[in-house]
Amino acid sequence: MSGPLFIYGPLGCQPLLSASLGQDGVDLARIATLPEYEVTAQSGGPLMAGLCPGRSRVEGWLVTDSDAVARLAYLAEVFDLGAPVPVALELAGKTIEALTFPGHPGSEPWQQEAWASRWGDLIEVAAAEITALMARVPAGDLAGRLQIVLSRAAARVAARTAVPADLRSAADAGQADEIACDISHAGYFLSRNYTLRHPRFDGTMSAPMRREVFVATDAALVLPYDPVTDRVLLVEQFRMGPYGRGDPRPWMLEPVAGRMDAGETPEQTARRECLEEAGLELRVLEKISSHYCTPGYSTEYFHLFLGLCDLPEETVGQGGLASEQEDIRTHIIGYDRAMTLLTSGEANNGPLILSLMWLERERARLRASA
C-alpha cells in the first residue's frame, strides 16, 4: 500500500503512533480533518471502533511517508480494520484525497480519554511487538494470533505494578544495562534474546550476559471445591511439556486453568475457564497466590485460586472448547483421595500441589462457613 493515509481513533492515538512509527514518523504526520463523519465504537475489544457517516468531523493524522504508511497498513491488517477506502480530507484549507481504514463502527460514541485510560498502554505494547515482526511474519498469519499478542501485552502492562521489596533488593529494573534485545522465535509463542549487564550485590556491574526468555501470558488457575460434600474437581489433559521431556505419562491432573485475555481480571478468567472446562459456576473465589512459575527463563505468571461451588454428583465428565482443540476429562474426588495424590506423587505439577496444600490448611475454616 502506498500513497497518503488518514488514521484516526485508536490507530491515531499518540502512544500507538509512537510505538509503530517512532518519533521520526510521528513528526512527519500532519493533522487533518474528515468532514461529515464520526467515530463510533463497539464493546468487546480495544480496536472495536470505526467510521460512520454523520454530521460531525473526525480529526486525525495524514501520513504520507511510504515506510510509515506500510507499517500502519500492516498494523491495520493484523487488527482487521478492513480494506482501505478513499476519503476527501481538509488540510490547511485544501481538499486532500487519501485512503483510510473503515474499522469496526458501532452504536456507541468513541471517547478517546476513556479508551486511552483502559487500552492505551496495552495497545502501545502490542503495536511494538507487531511492528517488530513485520519483516518476518505475514500480517494475515499474525492476525490469527492477535489474541495471544494482546494477552502478552496485557501481562507486560500488569507487571509494572511491583510487589513489595522488604527483604529482597529494591533496585529497579532500569538499572540493568540492556545492550541488545531481539526476537529469536515468533510462532504462536514468542522468545526474546537479551544481552545485558545488571547490578551485582557487591555494587559492581556484571559482565555482559546473553539470555533467552520465553515470553508467555499471565494465566488464572482455580481448584473448584465443594465444602459441603468435601470434594474437589480436577481436570486431566494431554500436556506437551511432559511429552517433550520424555514422560511416559503426559496426561496431567491439574486445577482448571486458562490464559488471561486482554482486558480481563484474574477473577474473570478463573470464572470463565470454570464454565468452559467444567461447566461450573463459582460462588466465591479465595486467593491462594500470584507467582512466577519458572523465573529463570520464562515470563509466565500464575494467579491461583480456590473456587467454592456446588459440584455435581457425576464423578467423571468431559469439558473444553473444540475451537481450541481441548480434550479435557474432569474428575470429582473426595478430599482424602485428593490428599493421597500428594503422597503418591501423582500430583506432579506446582499449581495442583500448592492448591491442595492450601486447601489442607484452610479446609476447616471453609467447611465451617459453608
UniProtKB/TrEMBL annotation:
Its EC number is 3.6.1.13. It comes from Roseovarius marisflavi. One of its GO terms (biological process) is ribose phosphate metabolic process. This is ADP-ribose pyrophosphatase. Belongs to the Nudix hydrolase family. NudF subfamily. Residues 215-370 form the Nudix hydrolase domain. The keyword Metal-binding applies. It catalyses: ADP-D-ribose + H2O = D-ribose 5-phosphate + AMP + 2 H(+). Pfam families: NUDIX. It is an enzyme of class 3 (hydrolase). GO terms for molecular function: ADP-ribose diphosphatase activity; ADP-sugar diphosphatase activity; metal ion binding. Keywords: Hydrolase, Magnesium, Metal-binding. Acts on ADP-mannose and ADP-glucose as well as ADP-ribose. Prevents glycogen biosynthesis. The reaction catalyzed by this enzyme is a limiting step of the gluconeogenic process. The keyword ATP-binding does not apply. Mg(2+) binds at A257, E273, E277, E326.
